[in-house]
């Protein structure tokens, strides 16, 4: 079992921050950071959290740091569909509904889909039912031939986007299950062609759907200053039409307001 000092040193190395830079940011002496990392000083819970904050350590791993230092975990992990997170869940639901007629969905740190809006349903209807058994994984859904991959024209571009995002995610906070997902779907093959990016502004996903090609780009929304692990780890991905023809199609799908 790693000590709190060893874990903090790992996170500091992962962030490529020197002891001096961390000490300046956390308003402590570089000697104190060194003593904590080598186990010659036992940090308080507040000091552990202060250093973790400046190292941008995820809440789940801050709990691990606290446990390693001999303290109780500070952050809870409650299900998104539970009573405790009802206000947050309702807020997410409003965001999803407000984005219609365009698709939007919510996924966790391992890219498992937690919520969607109604605009996603027509796409899911074309997916092999085996892929829709919980947990439904967005990466697997997007790249498996039984899923949405057969609808995507520029699969190489989409795979490259997934690869870049998950590689950055793993570099920031390693995770065995996410690593396995990366190895299964995203590890580059030796003969894999480079993606043909058409624009240096935004990468569109081109989907053959309903007899036409739809071009979409996406944005990511996260919770600000969450204190719950679940909220710290979820993201809302909202898709928008990338050209006038796609926008016209989505507008035609919009249900009239009562």
TrEMBL record:
SUPFAM superfamilies linked: lambda repressor-like DNA-binding domains
Highest taxon, organism lineage: Bacteria
InterPro entries: Cro/C1-type_HTH, Lambda_DNA-bd_dom_sf, MLTR_LBD
Domain HTH cro/C1-type: 8-62
Gene3D superfamilies on file: 3.30.450.180, lambda repressor-like DNA-binding domains
SMART domains (UniProt xref): HTH_XRE
Protein name stated in the entry: Transcriptional regulator with XRE-family HTH domain
Organism: Actinomadura algeriensis
């Amino acid at each position: 079992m790693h000590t709190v000092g060893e874990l903090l040193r790992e996170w500091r190395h992962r962030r490529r921050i020197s002891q001096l830079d961390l000490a300046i940011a956390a308003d402590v002496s570089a000697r104190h950071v060194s003593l904590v990392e080598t186990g010659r000083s036992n940090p308080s819970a507040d000091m552990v959290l202060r250093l973790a904050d400046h190292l941008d350590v995820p809440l789940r791993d801050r709990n691990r740091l606290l446990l390693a230092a001999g303290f109780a975990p500070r952050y809870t992990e409650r299900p998104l569909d539970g009573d405790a997170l009802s206000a947050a869940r309702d807020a997410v639901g409003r965001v999803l509904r407000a984005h219609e007629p365009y698709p939007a969905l919510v996924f966790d740190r391992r890219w498992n889909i937690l919520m969607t809006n109604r605009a996603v349903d027509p796409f899911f209807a074309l997916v092999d039912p085996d892929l829709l058994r919980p947990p439904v994984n967005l990466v697997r859904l997007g790249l498996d031939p039984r899923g949405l991959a057969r609808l995507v024209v520029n699969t190489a571009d989409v795979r490259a986007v997934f690869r870049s995002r998950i590689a950055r995610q793993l570099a920031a906070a390693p995770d065995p299950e996410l690593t396995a997902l990366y190895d299964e779907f995203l590890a580059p093959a030796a003969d894999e062609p480079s993606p043909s990016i058409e624009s240096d502004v935004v990468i569109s996903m081109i989907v053959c759907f309903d007899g036409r090609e739809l071009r979409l780009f996406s944005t990511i929304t996260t919770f600000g200053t969450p204190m719950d692990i679940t909220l710290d780890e979820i993201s809302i991905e909202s898709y928008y039409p990338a050209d006038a023809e796609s926008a016209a199609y989505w507008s035609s799908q919009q249900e009239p307001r009562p």
